[in-house]
Amino acid sequence: MSQFVYNNAAHGLGKNFRMIVDDGGRAAAGFTKERADCTVRAAAHAMGIDYASAHALLKKHGRKSKCGCKWKLMAPVLGFEIVPELSCRQLKSILPEMEHGRFVVRMAHHVFAVVDGNIYDHRIRGGGTRVLMTYRLVVPVAEVLARKP
Hints:
- The protein is an alpha+beta fold.
- The protein has helices at 38-47, 51-60, 71-74, 91-94, 141-146; strands at 4-6, 18-21, 80-82, 89-90, 102-107, 110-115, 118-121, 130-131, 133-137.
- The radius of gyration is 14 Å and the shape is globular.
- The N and C termini lie far apart (29 Å).
- A 7-stranded mixed β-sheet has the order 1-2-7-6-5-9-3, covered by helices on one side. The protein has a two-stranded antiparallel sheet with strand order 4-8.
């Protein structure tokens, strides 16, 4: 998986945070024609699993290939809970509170992961990005992977 790390101070995110741009392992897993898969990439990064496992997990819970799905419906199934105090704010204002832990951040029509203060997405995000909802991983990944649909 190729990653590019950007100078975040120039994007209004502060010097303590890294913006890591990559495809979540999609190309390496052979899913080169997949699209509308930000939920898969965000789940892979936030849960610390590979793209193929994340793809299979979301498919098991109703996501169709090459079609987006609503993160707010998938989040509880995947072991995430809403963090109200980190929602409805700008990204730069909530990053200091996400230095430790695994999160998925939802904005209009898109989600991305923040893991221990590192932002993982397929394109650069600026500090002014409006966050609609933030979710924190609270269930152990092994337990989530063992769940039945």
